[in-house]
Amino acid sequence: MNIFLFLATFITSRRGKKMIRFNGYNFNQVRARGARIRWACSTHHRFGCKAAIRTIDDIIVAVNENHEHKALRYVLSQRGRRMIQVNGFTYSLLPSKSRKKRWRCSTHSPNGCHAHVFTLDDLVIAVNGIHEHRPQNVSLNKVLFCDDTSVLR
């Protein structure tokens, strides 16, 4: 039995296409030859990410996890608000009407930290600023484990 079976989930995109979620990253189907399918990281066309998965009859047989970007990890604040965690630091969402979102370091008010993250469609596109503190400890019971990030919007 292959260990990849426990780490991957087949999901459906907003447009109804089959995708794979593996270790926090999404993969789109790019080529099919019979039962063999090649899946590329969903940022492949936009950012040139080289990560890929190969499946045969929906069983993962090969994985290249060399991503050129970071995966998002959603967590809950003490007040139950959605936050993201990148490199051990947590960020709160600032109001926005576009697909591009700006997240401010969650310790901005108490510590005056000016670090922030920009995301586009659940993908980290920029991490700006230097933190003036150590990463926060986020307990595992506050981590959101959800296969459908559209629920979290």
Describe what this molecule looks like in 3D.
There is one protein chain. The N and C termini lie far apart (36 Å). Helix content is 5%, strand content 43%. It is mainly beta. It has two domains: 3-64, N-terminal domain of TfIIb (Single Sheet), CATH 2.20.25; 73-152, N-terminal domain of TfIIb (Single Sheet), CATH 2.20.25.240. The longest helix is centred in the N-terminal third of the chain and has 4 residues, at 44-47. A six-stranded antiparallel sheet has the order 1-2-3-4-5-6, with no helix packed on it. The protein has a six-stranded antiparallel sheet with strand order 7-8-9-10-11-12, with no helix packed on it. It is elongated. β1 (8-12) and β2 form a beta hairpin.
- Report the CATH topology name of the largest domain: N-terminal domain of TfIIb
The outline comes out as: elongated
Sketch the topology as an H/E string, one letter per element.
EEEEHEEEEEEHEE
Radius of gyration: 17 Å
- Could you give the distance between the termini? 36 Å
Q: Main beta sheet: strand number and arrangement?
A: 6 strands, antiparallel
Number of helices: 2
Question: How many domains in all?
Answer: 2
Widest β-sheet, arrangement of strands: 1-2-3-4-5-6
Low-confidence region ranges: 1-6, 139-153
